[in-house]
Amino acid sequence: MKVVVLTGAGISAESGVPTFRDADGLWEGHRVEDVATPEAYEAAPSVVQAFYDARRAALSAVDPNPAHDALARLGEVLGDDLLLVTQNIDDLHERAGSPSVLHMHGELLAAWCTACGRRVRWAGALGDQPPCPGCAAPALRPDVVWFGEVPYEMDRIVDALVEADLFVSVGTSGAVYPAAGFVQQARAYGARTLELNLQPSEGSRWFHESRQGPAGLLVPEWVASLVG
Ligand code: APR
């Protein structure tokens, strides 16, 4: 059976990573246009860098939760029959042991150079504009996909949605496209679709089945029902 799982900020909520659109969410204190667009970066790079530097630093204080663990186990059992796509830029799926993770919105622990295009792993701060290890230009930006930019590896994702027997969405509000449209694509090509989310989302109506509850409970339950 071919399975595509899409995760969003809700899967990391129980690990202590704030979501975006819930009360106390990340966008609460920031207007999205001020930190998550190429225009914002051009206008005030230090504000944008500080926002992501703080989030990168906060990663060391959080750990994967049972939902990440369960998806890691699913990855071990299904191998190439699972495509795990995350909108999250944290590294909790990797730390839980997921064998392969597609970060469609990029990663906090990576940067790319706007001068030479080189991509590098990056664990420290970017706010003081360190030199690019490739070309030495002080032009590294977070390797995250901002509003108005194209998410990574869309071809691979769409191919997997076309082939999927089952599409499962975990902890995402269904507010941001193209990820919000994956359920319709998968369904149009014949997959069964299941949503696991704390509350009904903007996309709930598109799923064959929608279960409400914390990811830390629902995901292990669902994985156990699928692979024992
Ligand atoms: N278990 C399951 N779901 C949860 C939990 C939990 N413990 N806590 C919160 N949720 C749900 C919320 O109810 C909400 O529907 O997770 C969802 C989180 O939604 P958003 O904050 O909008 O996050 P996400 O859907 O990942 O955002 C998509 O928007 O800002 C951009 O690039 C950013 O990748 C992000 C994208």
TrEMBL record:
Catalytic residues identified in the record: 105
Positions contributing to NAD(+) binding: 8-27, 87-90, 171-173, 197-199, 215
Necessary cofactors: Zn(2+)
Keywords from the UniProt entry: Cytoplasm, Hydrolase, Metal-binding, NAD, Transferase, Zinc
Matches recorded under Gene3D superfamilies: SIR2/SIRT2 'Small Domain, TPP-binding domain
Pfam families to which the protein is assigned, alphabetical: SIR2
Record field: catalytic activity: N(6)-acetyl-L-lysyl-[protein] + NAD(+) + H2O = 2''-O-acetyl-ADP-D-ribose + nicotinamide + L-lysyl-[protein]; N(6)-succinyl-L-lysyl-[protein] + NAD(+) + H2O = 2''-O-succinyl-ADP-D-ribose + nicotinamide + L-lysyl-[protein]
Free-text cofactor note: Binds 1 zinc ion per subunit.
Residues the record lists as binding Zn(2+): 113, 116, 132, 135
Gene Ontology MF term list: hydrolase activity
Keyword NAD listed: yes
Binding site for substrate: 52, 55
Compartments, record wording: Cytoplasm
InterPro entries reported in the protein's UniProt record: DHS-like_NAD/FAD-binding_dom (IPR029035), NAD-dep_sirtuin_deacylases (IPR050134), Sirtuin (IPR003000), Sirtuin_cat_small_dom_sf (IPR026591), Sirtuin_class_III (IPR027546), Ssirtuin_cat_dom (IPR026590)
Residue span(s) of domain Deacetylase sirtuin-type: 1-228
EC number in record: 2.3.1.286
Family under the similarity heading: Belongs to the sirtuin family. Class III subfamily.
Domain remarks: 2 residues (Tyr-52 and Arg-55) present in a large hydrophobic pocket are probably involved in substrate specificity. They are important for desuccinylation activity, but dispensable for deacetylation activity.
PANTHER family: NAD-DEPENDENT PROTEIN DEACYLASE, NAD-DEPENDENT PROTEIN DEACYLASE SIRTUIN-5, MITOCHONDRIAL-RELATED
Protein name per Swiss-Prot or TrEMBL: NAD-dependent protein deacylase
Source species of the chain: Nocardioides aquaticus
